[in-house]
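Notes from hallway chat w/ T.B., transcribed later so I don't forget. T.B. wanted the structure written out for a chain they're using in a teaching module, and asked if we could keep both sequence and structure tokens in one place. Agreed to drop them here.
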Amino acid sequence: MKDWKGLLATVIITTGVLFLYFWYSIINADTLSIGNGGDAYKNYYTLAYYLRNDTGAHFTGMNYPFGEQVMFTDNQPLLAWILKALTKPFPGIVYHVHGIISWLIFISVLASAAIIYKTLRKLAVEVVPAAAFSVLIAVLSPQLLRFMGHFSLAYTCVLPMVFYYLVSAFQQKQGSRYPLLITVTVTLFSFIHLYYLALSGMFIMLVVMLYALVHIRQLKTEWQFPAKLIASAITPFIVLKGFLLLTDHIADRPTAPWGFVATRSTISDIFIGAYSFTGQLVGDLFPKAPIAHNFEGYGYIGLIATLCFAGGLIYAIIQLVRRKGNPIPYPFNYFLPAGIVILLFAMAFPFCIDQFEKYYVLMPGPIKQFRASGRFNWAFYYTITLLTAVFISRLAQSSKRKWAQYALLLIPITVWALELNMISVRNARDFKIVAGISNEKEEERALHDNLQRLGKKASDYQAILALPLFLNGSEKLYIESEAAFAAMQSSLYTNLPLIDCEMSRTSQSQTFSLANLAGDPLTKKDVVKLFPNNKPLLMLSVGGKLKEPEWRLMDKAKYLFQYGDRTYFELPLSAFTDIQDSVKQLVATNYNSYYRHTDYMSTDSLHTVFIKNFDTETTPYAVFGKGAWYSRSDDAFLFFDTLPNAWENTEYEISIWFYADKRRPAFPVIYFTQLDSAGNEIFKRDANGKFSTNTYNGWVRSDFTFTIRNKNEKLFISGNGEFASYDELMIRPVKTDVITHYENTGKFVFNNYPVY
């Protein structure tokens, strides 16, 4: 069979396989909404909103009034720019974004199969087995799971393209065609998602390093080939970095995101697979085995590839020990070691070992930005499956008997195909579960009709505020909300930006300033001064799990209407007026009547308040005063005693400030235990700054209340976490006002809130 016929057969068979299992998702792609929460709808919304409202490198849909640089929105910037250009001649395209995303992903699988076929043919695999292996490798790609939400990561053709160009480059070392094609491919797809840049760049650099070590004596005369490959890995980074330098001016993006160790691949993710033969067999044989599967770390290579990898590794070691040379076929003698190194990286080795996890902070900042380490296993997946296809094909070709050739090909292909069936049936089911019918035009019309009945229109408002508030992306505050899906839909239908935010690597200072909008009335809402006009906000609420400051906003809002699970309000900007001026007046009026204690003033004559301000510590920062408690890794024991002059049957508040240390994600945690006079635990609670909406100068305030029933009860307060900084621990009766760090009537701390 000729090559073009084999290529055509590969594409046709792959199309048939995709329709066999995923017909529902393919046929209904334009009317299905993949996911009604989490990353799925957000990744659709950021693209759809951009097409309706934005241009260039700036996205305005969230994080109002700041917006965001497109590379940090997961809206697939390259695709967004292409579709934006098409909206001029085809404006209706904005109502087909669901279909475009889904169809492009499935088309990428077809492209992947075709490219893998061409790669195998270059490696001398015969037409028929090349076609069969290509379909199996493409359809079983772990990237296909990203269809359930991480759309920009679901383009399965990217790494096969890089592999094809690398194989071609190694076979034809002269010329610059294939290094140039690698450069163009990686650069373009870097503007879809940065992981393509990281994965391709790391793999290429490892391959070149190994090649240089093996050919170190010839480098003086043969330096051009590795140099071109190095350039193909570095150039996309330079282009992307240059683009960001020109278009992104945020200086306080997170440098140590959460997740590198937590999202790693495990042995079972790679060699067992939850939906596979091996997964079922191991589950039946060892039902109590602690087998962990991680969505981010999933990269199952299949039973046949696992057996070939294990057998081949043993054989290669034996051959090397006997000094009979490297038995791994060229150029996989360079690819396989690189793939194994990347697999170890995907497993977060050695930081996945408890004793070494603490050293993760020493990793270079750019590497820590790729927090989903498990995704790097994709490079190993394509390496080992391609090598397996080559190995089986050559083993069959080496047999002198036809029946043996057929058996050596048919048996592994059949087993591989059976696994494809097992896994694809379950994947198709999962795709269907997370997909709901999209009625965007009807829902958009209904929202505008409701506004019109009240004599309102979307342009009467400047932005949307959703409650409960959600702010996720700064890697410091992790405030999530059941209102996120409704908020993004409402934003899309009205073309109004959201104050709430759910993106990646968002500016810390911007996030902190927005959090204060839903913070205590004592916190200043200075971000309102940045709003471009005085129009009110369109506020929506979903559910009833609001914090006390959010209920205060509800009280100041005007009810508009209810639609489905969402209630809409009109919120004037005056609702964000803080009470600092009234507190200043209160303190000035009552200054002489406050009771003086050692380090504070209060409305109680008795010393009923515990304060630990850490002013004797030598840290170069403090929320107020001179110092704060800091530790690189030690636990903090902050209080273990009875309260002074404790009031029985009285509600108390504990508050503390956490410093946003850039070397770690989120914040440390404070643990509180209340013990009766006999030492028995009667109440337990913790406080985490990542849920706070009260911020000040790079610090966040966390608090909770409890009740003292007996004055002899003991309180135990401790903290943990590396790079942990705490300041201004205060325990006070809720009805007692406390003034600390008093400078004058215009600058002091009131109930552990700064007044200035």
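Follow-up for T.B.: The chain is about 45% helix and 15% strand. Might be a good example for the class.
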